[in-house]
Structures are given as C-alpha cells and as structure tokens.
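Quick check before the chapter quiz. The format below is the same one you will see on the exam, so make sure you can read both the input and the output lines.
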Amino acid sequence: MDNIASTAFGLEIDSQKNPNDPFVKHAKMLFSWTFADFVMILVCLTRTEIHGNTIVFMVAGYETTKITLTFAAYTLATNPDVQEKLIQEIDRELADQELGYENVMNLEYLDMFLSEVLRLWGPAPRINRVAATDITLNGIKIPRGADVTISPVVVHRDPEYWPNPDKFDPERRQQAQW
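Here is the expected output.
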C-alpha cells in the first residue's frame, strides 16, 4: 500500500507503523464495497469515474504485488542457493545502513532475482490492446480496431530468446544484451 500511495498519489505513508493514517483507513473502506457499489461508481459522474479508476488502480496494484511476492517467496524456498546469495548481498551492501530506496537500488542480485521471478511468473498472463491503425506483422494483417492479445508467458518461455527457459537462473541477466 505504501508504494501505491507513493507512486499514484505522491504520499509518503507507513501503513505498518501508522494503521490509523487517513489513507490507510480509506483504502480499507475500498475493500469493503460490494461489486454493485463498484459498478455504480464507474457509471456516474466524471469525478466519480476518476475515483473509480483510482480504486481499480489500487486493487490491480495489490493483486500484481501479491502474485509477485508469492512467487518470489516460492522461488526462494525452492532455490536455497539463490536465497543464500541474496542474504549475502543484503548483508554486504546494507550492513548497518538504514534501509532506503537509494541503497536498495544498489542490490544488483536482488534486481536480477526479481526480474527472473517476473519472467517466469509474471502477474499478467496476457495483455490486451486495440490496434490503433491497420498493420501487417509477419504477413498477418491486423485491422484497425482489432483486439490484439499479447502473452508475456509465451514470450518469456520461448527458447529462441531464453536458453533453458524453464530454469530459474537470475545470473542470465548478467549476460543479457538488451
């Protein structure tokens, strides 16, 4: 919730230390609504539509974060060597420093670990878009207005792009040529 509040609204909160923060209290109210309440918000006035989109953003943010953290925990549990490397990097790089954005951004192995978690178990199994113009890709004509579905799961497990694609290997990020 703290990251969503910071990213979406520019608010600095600490929901763990201050559960009575007004943002935290209002966010909890969002999850006590019924589906009908949610639909009603989406069909009302412009201000309410903005409010409804904010709710969608927050709910989607929770879901994708939950999925990523679940698979990160699973991966650590099933790859004790990776877990040990992460512990060593955190102990070495953070030592007695207070945890903060700047020093977390210096944790290269953590970045490789999370990137590999997202490659194998990304929270969005498909992405839908509408073609803005007529286009031909690899001989396939896609007309303007057509629904286009992209599957990151398929791309992220394609051996043409990822050698041994089903293997969890954070170090593959060191050799990656982007």
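If your answer matched, good. The chain has a mean pLDDT of 82.
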